[in-house]
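Lab meeting, item 3. Inverse folding demo.
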């Protein structure tokens, strides 16, 4: 009894190309009724329509052709003018039900369509000549959808018309492999995306499958489905029947031949008996097409499969094809029922060769040949130009096929194609139209500047600090969003700027790259983001056995990672003045994240809530032993979100600092480049290890010319043999840069990363002496968050790397600091010099959590050092001169006096127009403290206790993050160092006993097992490797000094 009340509105139809074609397995489904126990499948008919009542509503389901793949079905479900379409009937019905009733109830499509109703299934079986069946070979299902028999034992008695299919992988994508027997040959046809991709041909199933190279562990007969007992039984029942002409009166035999060859492949109403009877009464020779048309409906069109069935049927009846011409010459065919067909065929062939069996006999003037001859002469008298042969040929090019024109006029396909274009554009035989003169206008400087300014915004791109474009030499820019989204933002900002095609063209194949995973470019993102998600994915794969749950959790993990990495920072709002904006969502309010918001936050973000639901799901499927580890991962992800919040806010301060510039001030952006090591044009790997190299420090000085309304940029690169990147090197580099400036600024603002060479007590105290030493007020120092290319100085470092690579590729070597100057001196606006700093230690507690510093030179705080967590956020922490003296521990700081080589005065300097933003044009909606996200992103709900515990007031500040303390660094004990030195010297004395870092690690483990040292004392392999590098360098230096001393003593 069916579960639902189903009415079959339309039975539908059987389509030969679909139900008996390559994709036929998708047009049949299983049947389990007793009346059809021998039939495992029944058809899914095209156009089949049923009506089912669900929740007192009528649901109409129709089977139609899939729009994406015209060879598979799809289901069109309709109710109350609301529709749903899917390749799965269950999905189509369930989605429509959800649209109407807002209920996620799932329904079984086959049941709703009545495929469990025996009466409906019986109707679907009507007028079906052949029902496919399937067999299993290993994990593969062989679907046999056409049968053909023969007496050939090599192919296990299968014959012409046998077809089966299986699903396998072809070129990394799913494909259908069709095995077929056609004209005594075996074929494999591979279909992919409804198109024939590959064909293999052989004499036997085994041979053709070996040629294909697929599924070699199975025999070809098995993959064809021929070795199965069910297939062999059907083939035994379908032995090929045949007879001679004088046996046509044997009605049973002739009917058996008809059932075998013709019944399933032509109209059921064809009176084949009358066809044979009439032929017996008339001449022995007939023209097949003309005769058959008498028995078919008017304007009926034969397909190739149907004609092939007629040919096989007539041959089985003892008839012979005696047509003397080829099929491409004429579609008509002559057949005879005579027992001696050889004589009749020879007579017809002779008549054809004498020119009688053609449309126009040779003894009558042939006007067609005269036409082609005249036209060919006209073509020969014209040149191969647009107004020559092409114009003449355009007169008839559209009226004849390519083959006809090639055979009669001896012209190529390109000439015919161009002639047809000429006819469509200009007319048949008419002269060419004069082409309009196209004037291409260059982009104005304003539009080019708009494009460049757009891609200097850190909300749009991140600059690479080490990769550059090979063609332009400029740094790679990582796009923060998809190109279409960027175009929409650009068009909104510059509605009269360049068009979409030009915008996309400039992005294609250049230095603009979209890369989702930028782990490793930022240590904070790598440690608290990418590594965490990598560990979570490893936990899921190794601890969850259910494939469905595993896939769901992995997908949720990727979604959460993409949200935090890409979309979380887009929800944070900072005004152009650098002020954090309130948001009604607790996790998106920067003021609340930095501890300075006392307004209500009634909303919560669904995506941020997903962080907690994701870990709750993990805990449901993982053991209790992993809960503590999962909690630690969750804290790290919260820390990652805080990192993005601080980075978004601090990055805005770069533009704010530039906007505050006037004639009296300067903005300095400083950074160290990675250590530069010696390079040669021919360098082996062993030559690279142990190199000391040079330090390179860069200072970008921004000044403003109010008259021209532009920013002037000067770059100062200082290199030194001293590789210590500390406060004194930084102070010396700043001193050298200021000494070279023609116009000394009255105040400065400094921006840098938060590395220990900047973010240290010594440098903060040194900056307090600047007003005394240089008469320059250090207005503030802002420490930016770690990130992928924090400022434009990283762009400059990428250009330096590119210039040095080019310098080495041209055959030069970098063996001294002078080579560095030579390699990078041609970078515009760059000054390069050698620097030897002079060096003249107390610590300010919590210095790493304070990212804005200033040194007042007047007022009640004169002489104090002030610091706070972020620019404009939090209360100032103050250190008085007395406190500073205690920190210094009686040490005096003197003005830096480094030895600096003379910088070349370069007339070319980079200047960039100031991107001054009109503060008065701030959108009123941005000033509204009640901001709401779109309904599909944010839902108003009660924030649970878990969210309030995590997103507390000031949750994004470094001082508020509970897991900010890293694990203490494990130092090697003296005993371990002594053992390592013994191993090192043993290998130096005898290279055969030289140990690698891994071997030294194993040796230390063995000593720990015997109690010589403890397991806690055994360092990591990477630590041992670093120790080998450092100790090797020190040992070589010591040996060199010792050798020199011995030589000097001998000379004395």
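The presenter then showed the designed sequence:
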């Amino acid at each position: 009894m069916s579960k639902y009340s189903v009415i079959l509105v339309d039975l539908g139809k059987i389509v030969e190309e679909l139900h008996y074609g390559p994709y036929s397995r998708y047009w049949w489904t299983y049947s389990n009724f007793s009346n059809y126990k021998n039939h495992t499948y029944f058809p899914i008919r095209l156009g089949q329509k049923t009506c089912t009542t669900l929740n007192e509503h009528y649901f109409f389901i129709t089977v139609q052709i899939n729009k994406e793949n015209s060879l598979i079905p799809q289901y069109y479900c309709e109710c109350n003018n609301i529709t749903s379409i899917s390749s799965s009937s269950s999905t189509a019905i369930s989605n429509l039900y959800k649209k109407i009733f807002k209920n996620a109830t799932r329904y079984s499509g086959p049941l709703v369509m009545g495929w469990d109703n025996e009466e409906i299934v019986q109707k679907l079986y009507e007028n079906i000549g052949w029902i496919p069946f399937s067999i299993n070979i290993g994990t593969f299902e062989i679907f046999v959808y056409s049968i053909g028999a023969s007496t050939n034992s090599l192919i296990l008695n299968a014959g012409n018309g046998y077809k089966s299919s299986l699903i396998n992988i072809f070129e990394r994508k799913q494909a259908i492999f069709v095995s077929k027997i056609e004209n005594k040959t075996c074929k494999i046809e591979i279909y992919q995306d409804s198109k024939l991709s590959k064909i293999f041909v052989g004499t036997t199933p085994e041979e053709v499958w070996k040629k294909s190279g697929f599924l070699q562990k199975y025999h070809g007969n098995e993959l064809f489905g021929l070795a199965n007992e069910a297939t062999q039984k059907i083939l035994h029942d379908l032995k090929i029947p045949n007879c001679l002409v004088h046996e046509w009166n044997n009605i049973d035999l002739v009917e058996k031949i008809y059932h075998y060859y013709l019944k399933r492949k032509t109209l059921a109403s064809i009176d084949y008996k009358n066809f044979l009877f009439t032929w017996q009464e008339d001449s022995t020779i007939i023209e097949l097409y003309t005769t058959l048309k008498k028995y078919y409906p008017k304007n009926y069109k034969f397909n190739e499969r149907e004609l092939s069935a007629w040919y096989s049927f007539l041959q089985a009846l003892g008839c012979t094809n005696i047509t003397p011409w080829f099929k491409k010459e004429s579609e008509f065919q002559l057949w005879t029922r005579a027992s001696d067909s050889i004589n009749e065929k020879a007579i017809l062939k002779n008549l054809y060769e004498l020119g009688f069996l053609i449309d126009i006999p040779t003894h009558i003037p042939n006007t067609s040949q005269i036409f082609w001859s005249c036209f060919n002469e006209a073509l020969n008298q014209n040149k191969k130009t647009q107004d020559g042969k092409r114009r003449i040929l355009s007169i008839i090019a559209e009226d004849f096929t390519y083959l006809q024109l090639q055979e009669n006029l001896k012209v190529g396909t390109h000439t015919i194609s161009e002639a047809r274009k000429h006819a469509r554009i200009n007319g048949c035989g008419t002269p060419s139209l004069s082409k309009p003169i196209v004037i291409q206008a260059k982009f104005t400087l304003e539009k080019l500047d708009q494009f460049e300014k757009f891609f200097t915004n850190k909300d749009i791109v991140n600059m690479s600090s080490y990769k550059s474009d090979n063609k332009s030499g400029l740094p790679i820019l990582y796009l923060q969003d998809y190109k279409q989204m960027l175009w929409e933002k650009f068009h909104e900002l510059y509605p009269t700027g360049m068009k979409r095609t030009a915008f996309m063209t400039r992005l294609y194949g250049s230095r603009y790259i979209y890369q989702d995973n930028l782990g490793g470019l930022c240590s904070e993102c790598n440690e608290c983001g990418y590594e965490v998600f990598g560990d979570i994915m490893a936990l899921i794969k190794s601890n969850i056995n259910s494939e469905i749950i595993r896939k769901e959790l992995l997908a949720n993990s990727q979604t959460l990672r993409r949200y935090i990495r890409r979309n979380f920072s887009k929800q944070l709002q900072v005004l152009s003045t650098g002020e954090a904006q309130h948001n009604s969502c607790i996790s998106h309010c920067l003021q609340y994240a930095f501890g300075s918001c006392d307004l209500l936050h009634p909303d919560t973000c669904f995506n941020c809530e997903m962080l907690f639901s994701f870990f709750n799901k993990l805990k449901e499927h993982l053991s209790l032993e992993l809960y503590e580890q999962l909690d630690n991962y969750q804290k790290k992800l919260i820390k990652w979100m805080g990192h993005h919040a601080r980075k978004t806010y601090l990055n805005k301060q770069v533009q704010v600092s530039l906007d505050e510039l006037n004639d009296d001030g300067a903005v300095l952006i400083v950074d160290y480049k990675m250590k530069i090591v010696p390079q040669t044009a021919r360098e082996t790997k062993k030559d690279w290890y142990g190199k000391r190299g040079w330090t390179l420090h860069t200072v970008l000085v921004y000044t403003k010319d109010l008259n021209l309304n532009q920013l002037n940029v000067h770059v100062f690169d200082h290199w030194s043999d001293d590789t210590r990147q500390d406060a004194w090197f930084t102070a010396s580099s700043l001193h050298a840069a200021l000494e070279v400036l023609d116009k000394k600024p009255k105040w400065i603002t400094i921006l840098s990363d938060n590395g220990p060479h900047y973010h240290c007590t010594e440098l903060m105290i040194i900056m307090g002496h600047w007003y005394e030493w240089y008469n320059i007020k250090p207005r503030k120092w802002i420490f930016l968050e770690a990130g992928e290319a924090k400022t434009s100085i990283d762009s400059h470092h990428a250009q330096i790397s590119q210039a040095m690579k080019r310098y080495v590729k041209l055959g030069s070597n970098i063996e001294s600091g002078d080579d560095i100057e030579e390699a990078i001196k041609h970078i515009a606006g760059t000054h390069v010099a050698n620097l030897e700093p002079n060096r003249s230690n107390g610590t300010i507690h919590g210095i790493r959590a304070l990212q804005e510093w200033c040194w007042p030179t007047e007022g009640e705080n004169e002489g104090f050092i002030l610091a706070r967590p972020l620019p404009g956020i939090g209360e100032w922490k103050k250190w008085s001169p007395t406190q500073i003296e205690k920190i210094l521990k009686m040490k005096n700081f003197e003005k830096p006096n480094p030895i600096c080589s003379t910088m070349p005065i370069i007339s070319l300097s980079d200047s960039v127009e100031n991107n001054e933003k009109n503060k008065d044009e701030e959108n009123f909606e941005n000033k509204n403290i009640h901001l709401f996200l779109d309904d599909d992103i944010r839902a108003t709900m009660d924030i649970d206790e878990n969210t309030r515990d995590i997103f507390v007031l000031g949750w994004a500040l470094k001082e508020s993050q509970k897991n900010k303390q890293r694990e203490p660094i494990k130092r090697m004990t003296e005993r371990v160092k002594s053992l390592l030195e013994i191993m090192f010297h043993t290998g130096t004395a005898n290279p055969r006993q030289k140990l690698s870092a891994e071997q030294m690690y194993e040796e230390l483990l063995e000593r720990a097992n015997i109690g010589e040292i403890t397991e806690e004392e055994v360092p990591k392999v990477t630590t041992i490797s670093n120790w080998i590098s450092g100790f090797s360098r020190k040992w070589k230096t010591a040996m060199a000094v010792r050798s020199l001393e011995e030589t000097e003593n001998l000379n004395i």
